[in-house]
Amino acid sequence: MTDTTKAQILAVARRAVHTEMLALGHLEQTLGDAFAEAVELILAGRGKCIVTGMGKSGLIGRKIAATFASTGTPSFFLHPGEAFHGDLGMISKEDVILALSYSGETDEILKIVPFIHSNGNRLISMTGNDDSALARNSDVHLNVGVEEEACILHLAPTTSTTAQIAMGDALAVSLMQQRGFTSVDFARLHPGGSLGRRLLMTVGNVMRDHDLPVVSPDCSVVEMIHTISKGGLGLIVVCEGDRIEGIVTDGDVRRAMERLKADFFNIHARDIATPHPKTIGAGEKLIEAERVMTRNKITSLLVTGDDGRLTGVIQIYDIKL
Hints:
321 residues, three-stranded mixed β-sheet, alpha/beta
């Protein structure tokens, strides 16, 4: 590929991104009362928010419905063609309908509008034309009109679909805020994901609670090295009876070796231990353990009971798995 070809490719790509960026800037500035009304309408609905659309608008509609459903607004996508041939039975009287059609004149959607009205459903439309048939027959209309498509022929839906998806995301996050949707709620709906695991599982579920590498304060350096290697955690916990005195990592041992050289074999655990190591309770969520480790720039936490006794060790890879 020549430099000229690369330059042409990048120029077209940057122009497309810039065109869509300008459209999103315009969308931001024109959001107003209609948007707030749409959010209030969905919040007031006692059923689901059913999203419908044809073609590219339908693909965007599927994404919007999925985003709604995963962020606290029960929702599903209904294909307008299938709806006209029997699937209108999926719509209950309590549902709110969100219909996407950039032209606002999509025949398959207009055909089901009479049913939506007769069934008593509220209709929110998302089009690029305030005077379109769909916009005029909606309870709330959201205008996603753009000046031009990013397509070099100004024909393929590009900028317009970006505006639709941005409007959908804006609705989703506004609904989240109004519902008081939290990260814990998100985790409940995503139990198989990494975030869900960290938010729902506790430290006690994954901590190492057996064969803990514990040594006394007067432990020799040879015994420290042996215990660190045997423990497989890269550290030892220094305890005086049941009281935690400090922690020594393999890095602490190596640094002591460099610093003390000839006197290295005369040191004891108390000499190089970091006092007052960070601890956490077994009942805390994994996400809290991650926050403590990140905030303190450490990779291990000691787990203690209510009496302050050592009950386990949790490390960052236990959380990230």
